[in-house]
Specification:
With 336 residues, the protein is of the alpha/beta class. The protein contains 12 helices and 15 strands. It has helices at 13-16, 43-50, 115-118, 121-134, 152-164, 177-184, 196-204, 219-225, 249-255, 264-267, 273-288, 305-312, and strands spanning 3-7, 17-21, 31-41, 66-74, 86-88, 99-103, 108-109, 143-147, 167-172, 188-191, 211-214, 233-236, 258-261, 296-300, 322-326. The strands form 3 sheets. Strands 3, 4, 5, 6, 7, 14 and 15 form a 7-stranded mixed beta sheet that branches. Strands 10-9-8-11-12-13 form a 6-stranded parallel beta sheet, with helices on both faces. Strands 1-2 form a two-stranded antiparallel ribbon. Helix 4 crosses helix 11.
Length: 336
């Protein structure tokens, strides 16, 4: 019988998660059942498990926002997929389980390539692409700035910007990340802290970035905003500090800098379903070709879901990459 992680309440993973055997999933006429190969674990997954504000979803449920697998069964009306086709199942479909049932129309064809890498395409990849496209008409030679640039989304953004000729200032908190992100293609890599705006201008030759991306919040929001060209967007992508964004009213009044939180799903409302599908196909191809590559902190079996949650909840060097649930027969706990 296929197994699944089931969340029965909100709280610490050890208290609210269990692995259960379930009957094999049976597709409706317009559905597919996907046998999972890999599923990515995000901070958002941990927040839905603990029941953080704005992350409470109906219970009981299976966590997991994204992943990759093969079509195991399909409904009578499904023509776009054949049994055995590789596919990204519907976003938010509860991927911490061996079999995922979803609408065939919500699935996206997936290419050959490493399952762990591809399992990150539909969240981090889509977020990076939206950041690059939606907040300024960036042209070759323009600059953007991001903090927490060592995140997976930040690494994708460096590569995607480079493909468009857009240059990046990448702000990090650990000195050992500087050379690594430069090797990845970061045009400027700076340590966060006092005097950031002056150091950014020195790195860009006096050009102010047209978009700022803040994953840290707290005082870091103001530091990024002070680097920007007038009337630019600073986009809040997360809160690694667990503090509210701090942005001075008089600075905003004088500069015209605007703050907005990003939801890539909300940004997708401005795109047609075909445009969204084409975006995913593009990202999947770039991952398959090795142009976009995530740092994998560890691959964990479904049986090791609590260890996976523990690793995903760490920060900095203690996690150092993304956590992936590995459903392959030869997967081993915690291997990078």
């Amino acid at each position: 019988m296929p197994r699944a992680v089931v969340q029965s309440a909100y709280g610490a993973p050890a208290a609210v998660l269990r692995i259960v055997d379930l009957p094999a999933e049976q597709p409706g006429p317009d559905e597919v059942v996907v046998r999972m190969e890999a599923a990515a674990m995000h901070i958002a997954d941990l927040k839905t498990i603990t029941g953080a504000p704005y992350f409470r979803l109906p219970l009981p449920r299976t966590p997991g926002f994204e992943g990759i697998g093969h079509v195991l069964r399909k409904g009578a009306n499904v023509a776009q997929f054949a049994i055995g086709d590789r596919v990204f199942p519907a976003l938010g479909g509860g991927t911490f389980r061996e079999e995922v049932r979803c609408a065939a129309a919500a699935g996206v064809p997936a290419p050959a390539g490493d399952a762990a890498q591809l399992s990150l395409a539909t969240v981090n990849g889509a977020t990076a692409e939206v950041l690059l496209e939606d907040y300024a008409a960036l042209q070759p030679g323009d600059w953007l700035i991001q903090n927490a640039a060592n995140s997976n989304c930040g690494r994708y953004l460096i590569r995607l910007a480079g493909l468009k000729g857009v240059r990046t200032v990448n702000v990090v908190r650990r000195p050992e990340m500087v050379d690594e992100l430069r090797a990845l293609g970061g045009d400027g890599v700076l340590l966060d802290g006092a005097g950031l705006a002056e150091r950014v201008l020195a790195a860009t030759g006096g050009v102010r970035p047209k978009v700022g991306i803040d994953c840290v919040s707290g005082p870091a929001t103001q530091r990024v905003a002070e680097c920007l060209a007038p009337d630019s967007w600073i986009v809040s992508l997360g809160s690694m500090s667990n503090q509210p964004c701090e942005l001075d009213f008089y600075f905003m009044f004088a500069s015209g800098v605007r703050l907005q939180a990003l939801s890539f799903a909300r940004q997708f409302r401005n795109r047609t379903p075909q445009q969204v599908r084409e975006l995913y196909l593009k990202l999947a191809r770039l991952i398959s070709e090795g142009v976009l590559e995530a740092k994998i902190a560890g691959r964990y079996r479904l049986d090791d879901i609590l260890a996976a949650c523990d690793r995903a909840g760490r920060t900095g060097a203690e996690r150092d990459g993304k956590v992936v649930i590995d459903f392959s027969p030869d997967g081993s706990p915690g291997r990078p």
